[in-house]
Design goal:
Largest sheet: 13 strands, mixed
CATH superfamily of one domain: ANL, N-terminal domain
Bound molecules: adenosine monophosphate
Radius of gyration: 24 Å
Structural class: alpha/beta
Shape: globular
Strand content: 15-25%
CATH class of one domain: Alpha Beta
CATH architecture of one domain: 3-Layer(aba) Sandwich
CATH topology of one domain: Rossmann fold
Distance between the termini: 71 Å
Number of strands: 25
Helix content: 25-40%
Number of helices: 16
Length: about 550
């Protein structure tokens, strides 16, 4: 008979991250650039106290355990308080992306049956417009103080955030309950079909926070100053509001001020050491810094993910700005972290280019995430760095299903990510494409990410997207859609010649078109579906 362990069992509660931060790093700052335009300074101790008051207020509003409470808000201290107050009091925090189409926002609120919603001042007009279509909603709380409340509104029960907090005494104890209880819901961005809700538990969130802070993962510690550029409505800002509390570091929130100039100023002013965001955000920051001949004085490490980070961006940040890039892959269904690119000890002596090639991959699975690649018949493929297949994952913070959807998304216990990838013998995973974005040329697959990465390394190219275009002989051939850097001159032939020696000849794109702007999804990814529609009648010169 097996002998049972004899250790305490304490449920993994999200509130315990906050109480730990308040007790051990209570004076560490939480700084926010507010929607109101000014800077706000708080501490982990204040965030904890105000979260307790907010939890009391939620009770007074009649919100019960399990009720969904929405947020339509940018990154800021009030959003952080809502994260902890809602989940910590056994309600479910439902972050919503305000950049989605209004009908999608309404669809998501109705699917989650949100009873209350917290809204930032400059997003309020959207809620006012949508409110008549949101029958589950009992309370709308504007995230501001009394003097910023609108004089007139069509919403009869509009509440003021600071009034709610001021009415409470904070005499509240965080409850303890089953760690598998729902804590937050995030919806996938749903560029095809309706968005789907991933319901994270307290347990999955705390385990994700532990793992993501590890030195081989995000490598953040209490001495860091962390600025999450990735929005708190995009997979909980990749868990940073939780891991920052776990380690007790200073947090800096940029609000909606995400242009290069505003970010640069905030990085310098608050002595930011670590940040995280999608590649398009860094494009803006790097351009601003280059144009104005600026360097970072404290910024040293950044996690970039959400879409493939071009090797040229990794190199620029490293060589010109001294910022180490950790390339990461993940998704809403993974809370989001899956893999991160970090060198192993045996790579230390490799030449720079070889190290760069490893770091440009999406990286190794962190403990807690198991992955494999399978072919069209479900056969598991070898880890040889060449065989490409559908990437499947399982682990402590991977969804087992979606909210309100009966059908399980799992294949024999594994979650099919919809990404196509290779895995090499050292365990480094590399995404070649979203499976629906793969370019299928005469039965062979061409990776759109590979094609984009080459052009992103050209000095005249600001952004490049590869899409498939109909071809009478090969079925599909690659078409590149390119935005040139401001003032840069480069021709189609020069860019096509730039591919020589960098990819197999037969993969060289058939055509290049220049545009002023490439469309992006609400989470900053290149909107391939829209681009394919835009160029569906494009005639390739090779056709
Ligand atoms: P989301 O759920 O919005 O975070 O989107 C997840 C999807 O983004 C993944 O399935 C990938 O297709 C893509 N993605 C995320 N990170 C990366 C990365 N580092 N490289 C390539 N694609 C990525």
């Amino acid at each position: 008979m097996s002998l049972m362990g004899n250790m305490m069992h304490m449920p993994l509660m999200i509130s315990s991250l906050l109480t730990h931060a308040a007790r051990h790093n209570g004076d560490v700052e939480v700084v926010s650039k507010r929607v109101e335009g000014d800077m706000h300074r708080s501490t982990w101790a204040e965030v904890e106290l105000r979260s307790r008051k907010l939890a009391q207020a939620l009770g007074r509003l009649g919100l019960e355990a399990g009720d969904r409470v929405g947020t339509l808000a940018w990154n800021g201290y009030r959003h952080l308080e809502i994260y902890y107050a809602v989940s910590g009091s056994q309600r479910v925090c439902h972050t919503i992306n305000p950049r989605l189409f209004p009908q999608q926002v309404a669809w998501i609120v109705n699917d989650a049956q949100d009873k209350a919603i917290f809204v930032d001042l400059n997003i309020f007009p959207l809620v006012e417009k949508l409110a008549p279509t949101l029958p589950s909603l009992k309370h709308v709380i504007l995230m501001c103080s009394r003097e910023n409340m609108p004089r007139e509104t069509s919403l009869p029960h509009l509440l003021c955030y600071e009034d709610l907090i001021n009415a409470e005494d904070g005499n509240y104890e965080w409850p303890s309950f089953d760690e598998n209880t729902a804590a937050t819901i995030c919806y996938t961005s749903g560029t095809t079909g309706n968005p789907k809700g991933a319901v994270y538990s307290h347990r999955s969130t705390v385990l994700h926070a532990y793992a993501s802070a590890l030195p081989d993962a995000m490598n953040v510690c209490s001495a860091d100053t962390v600025l999450p550029v990735v929005p708190m409505f995009h997979v909980n800002a990749w868990g940073l509001p939780y891991s920052a509390a776990l380690i007790g570091c200073k947090l800096v929130f940029p609000g909606h001020h995400l242009d290069g100039a505003s970010l640069y100023e905030l990085f310098e002013q608050e002595k930011v050491t670590f940040s995280a965001g999608v590649p398009t955000i860094w494009l803006g920051l790097i351009n601003h810094a280059k144009q104005n001949n600026l360097k970072f004085s404290t910024f040293k490490n950044t996690v970039i993910g959400g879409s493939a980070c071009p090797p040229a961006m990794i190199r620029t940040l490293q060589d010109e700005f001294g910022v180490q890039v950790i390339h990461a892959w993940g998704m809403t269904e993974l809370s989001p972290l899956g893999t991160l690119s970090r060198l192993k000890a045996k790579h230390a002596g490799l030449p720079k280019e070889q190290k760069e090639a490893i770091l440009a991959k999406q990286g190794k699975g962190i403990y807690g995430i198991d992955m494999r690649i399978v072919d069209a018949n479900g056969q598991v493929l070898p880890w040889d760095g060449k065989s490409a297949g559908d990437l499947e994952v399982r682990g402590h913070w991977v969804v087992a299903g979606y909210f309100n959807v009966d059908k399980s998304p799992l294949h024999n216990g594994w979650f099919p990510t919809g990404d196509v990838a290779t895995i090499d013998a050292d365990g480094y995973m590399q995404i070649t494409d979203r499976s629906k974005d793969v370019i299928k040329s005469g039965g062979e697959w061409i990776s759109s990410i590979d094609l984009e990465n080459v052009l992103m390394g050209h000095p005249a190219v600001m952004e490049a997207a590869a899409i498939s275009c109909h071809h009478p002989k090969w079925d599909e051939r690659p078409l590149m859609v390119v935005v040139r850097k401001q003032g840069a001159e480069v021709s189609k032939d020069e860019l096509l010649a730039f591919y020589k020696g960098k990819i197999p000849n037969w993969q060289t794109p058939d055509d290049i078109v220049f545009v002023d702007e490439i469309p992006h999804t609400a989470t900053g990814k290149i909107y391939k579906l829209k681009l394919r529609e835009q160029f569906k009648d494009h005639k390739l010169p090779t056709a």
